[in-house]
Amino acid sequence: MEKLTIVLSFAFFLLIPLTSPRENKALANQSFLMTQATNNDSEKVMDLVWRLPEVQQKAAEIRRLSNGKIRVKLMIESTPTKTEPFYTVRLFEDHPDRIVTLYWFRVNMPEERITVQDEITGEYVSLEQWRKK
User: Fold this and answer.
1) How remote is the C-alpha of 97 from its chain's centroid?
2) At what angle do helices 2-14 and 40-50 cross, to 10 degrees?
3) What values do phi and psi take at 30, rounded to 5?
4) Which of 107, 114, 108 shows the shortest CA–CA distance to 128?
5) Do 70 and 100 meet the contact criterion of CB atoms below 8 Å apart?
6) Is residue 90 a contact partner of residue 101, using CB atoms and an 8 Å limit?
């Protein structure tokens, strides 16, 4: 039962609506208390991606264009393994009947190196390369 509670708490944390930075921080802090034992790097990974200026701009744009009806969220899709030593993070629009993926990120920890999937080639590129496009 305890394991189920931790898993459900962690899932809740990953799907927190990412609203204003102040609201998001308050929600993340509440959730983090429940998930701290799960994986300390997960929160840091989510925070690193959420703080990217491009992510903040996209979230604000979607919130504005949808009159606040559609929220942008993050979800960790996979955690590091021996063959893939990075977190895979999805940024998506959360609609009532579906989700729409906006970007895929990979985050290497503890280096905190972020790469982004190129929308055309499907290859992961550095933030610097992605920003040039």
Assistant:
1) 20
2) 10
3) -65, -45
4) 114
5) no
6) yes
* The total number of residues written for the chain in this structure: 133
pTM of the model: 0.70
Query: Can you read off the two tokens belonging to residue 113?
Result: 């190196």
Which residues lie closer than 8 Å to 74 by C-beta, 6 or more apart? 14, 18, 46, 49, 50, 89, 90, 91, 92
Tokens of 109: 């920890």
- Return the residue matching tokens 């703080």: 51
Q: Whole-angstrom Cα distance, residue 14 to residue 43?
A: 9
Question: 87 forms bridges with which residues in the sheet?
Answer: 107
**Contact indicator for 67, 91 with CB cutoff of 8 Å:** no
Q: Average pLDDT across each block of 10 residues of the chain; the chain has 133 residues. List them in order.
A: 43 45 41 44 93 96 94 94 94 93 94 94 95 88
CA distance 8 to 128: 36
